[in-house]
Amino acid sequence: MTDGTGGGPPHPRRRGQGELEAQVLAALRRAPGPVNAGWVRERLGGGLAYTTVITILTRLYAKGVVGRERSGRSFVWAPVADEAGLAALRMRRVLEAEVDREAVLARFAAALTPGDARLLRDLLDRAEGGRPAGGEGDAGDADG
Asked: Which Gene3D superfamilies match (predicted)?
């Protein structure tokens, strides 16, 4: 049985999948527009294999975080959301993975600060086409 080091030169610290995904996304956000995997690989440095970059981009695409379009025989890639959009996507995924969505949302709502609860209420009203944010001029808003 070997110890896994292979006796060769030391390898750089191995990055976790989440860390590598974040680095790929950061590179895409700095890009001048849609870019190919080779461009991303050059920006990341560290001797990553081209196939590793393609794997990460494909995973991000499957998660809906990046978009891609055909360019010749390969693809060019671009982020589909900013930081807030990515955080919202992660929150939706966590909620979708739970069996008792009502309990999760109830506990989330109960843990909000009063200011965040008001903000969320205003955002939900706007998203549903209800009263404007802040509740100005809404006669039906008797509860304050």
From this structure: Winged helix-like DNA-binding domain superfamily/Winged helix DNA-binding domain
**DSSP-assigned beta bridge partners for residue 71:** 74
Distance CA 112, CA 96 (A): 20
Q: CB-based burial of residue 52 (10 Å sphere; 0-12 exposed, 13-18 middle, 19+ buried)?
A: middle
Contact status, residue 117 vs residue 105, Cβ threshold 8 Å? no
30-51 residue pLDDT tens: 999 999 999 999 999 878 999 9
The model's pTM: 0.57
Return the CATH number of the domain spanning residue range 17-79: 1.10.10.10
| Cα–Cα distance for residue pair 120/8, rounded to 1 Å | 55
Cα distance between residue 15 and residue 142, in whole Å: 53
| d(C-alpha 108, C-alpha 102), whole Å | 10
Strand partners, 70: 75
In angstroms, rounded to a whole number, what is the distance separating the alpha carbons of residues 24 and 37? 10
Question: In the chain, where are the structural domains located?
Answer: 17-79, 99-131
